[in-house]
Write a structure and sequence with these properties.
heterodimer; A: 91 residues; mainly alpha; F1FO ATP Synthase; B: 236 residues; globular
Chain lengths: 91, 236
């Protein structure tokens, strides 16, 4: 079966970009859920500090989200700025 | 049916101008008869609430020096919050006969969010040098140890990238989800997703501003600054 390399590049890019986002968000969701649970426990124990805890929680969630954002960026690059696509189109 | 994933040039520019005009126009109208004595107008009270809340939040992160950073961080927050808030209004592009969407959030374009993130990237050394001097800023790169110098530099670049991508991803996906739901299940789900989009818009504006403040505060080392200032006042 003769597979055009453009077909291979396009197909694999599509499949694996969704894999990147799917697998990347698993760890992100687990980590953020854990951080939120601990923050809620802290607020329940010390309601006076809830402003500081909320702010720290938001900053911490943004830090945890960073690797999931990297996976999202890889997916976008594969779909919209694929470096191999233009190589095969040029041929 | 074509769902546009990225904003065209004019779409971003015109929507940015709309947000800018609204922010400047509202502020100019409200501050036209600014007074410091007690019977202040209600518009001025609303503006004071907004500005004071921002200043208090910034002060808690900035070691008490809210005023120094309020213009930059406040503008960031107001621009992003306003541009996300205006997505509440339906699109009038069909009425005006334009082929791009008016109004769609300009922060849904990677260009706008990258520009905002670059502002933060340059603001960190700016504030650090202005408050503490060039040597102090350079010293922050070799803390806690000189071996983390490459990691600090790389971390500076990647956190800027993450700032841009976080805001862009949240805003763009909000618009795309509503567009897809309008095509599939147009009865009640698009409204729910738009509500969620509004909440996420405010949260993302807050996160962007807070993260920018945290980065600046860690470069200026506001806690040490406050300790030094107290020592000066007590000793001098």
């Amino acid at each position: 079966m003769e597979l055009d390399p453009r077909v291979v590049v396009a197909g694999l890019s599509i499949i694996f970009s969704s894999f990147a986002v799917a697998i990347g968000s698993i760890g992100n969701a687990l980590g953020q859920g854990r951080a939120l649970a601990d923050a809620l426990t802290a607020i329940a124990q010390q309601p006076d500090a809830s402003n500081v805890i909320s702010r720290t929680l938001f900053v911490g969630l943004a830090m945890i989200e960073t690797t999931a954002i990297y996976c999202f960026v890889i997916a976008l690059i594969l779909l919209f700025a694929n470096p191999f696509w233009s190589f095969f189109l040029g041929r | 049916m074509q769902i546009e994933l990225s904003l065209s040039f004019w779409e971003t520019m015109v929507n940015t101008w709309i947000v800018m005009a609204l922010l400047v126009g509202l502020s100019a109208w409200i501050t036209r008869d600014l007074r410091a004595e007690m019977p202040v107008s209600r518009k001025q009270q609303v503006l004071e609430i907004i500005v004071e809340t921002m200043e208090n939040q910034i002060s808690e992160l900035a070691g008490g020096q809210g005023r120094t950073y309020l213009p930059f961080i406040g503008t960031l927050f107001l621009f992003i919050a306003m541009s996300n808030l205006l997505t509440m209004f339906p699109s009038v592009s069909r009425l005006l006969g334009l082929e791009f969407d008016v109004y769609s959030a300009p922060t849904g374009s990677l260009n706008t969010t990258a520009a905002l993130a670059l502002c933060v990237f340059f603001a960190v050394p700016f504030f650090s040098i202005r408050e503490r001097g060039v040597l102090h800023w350079l010293k922050t790169y070799i803390q806690p140890s000189v071996f983390v110098l490459p990691f600090n530099i790389i971390g500076d670049v990647t956190r800027t990238l993450a700032l841009a991508m976080r805001l862009f991803g949240n805003m763009m996906s909000g618009g795309v989800i509503v567009a897809i739901l309008l095509a599939i299940a147009p009865f009640v789900f698009p409204v729910i997703m738009q509500l969620l989009g509004q909440v996420m818009g405010f949260i993302q504006a807050y996160i962007f501003a807070v993260l920018a403040m945290v980065y600046i505060a860690s470069a200026v080392q506001v806690e040490q600054q406050r300790i030094e200032r107290h020592a000066e006042e007590r000793g001098g």
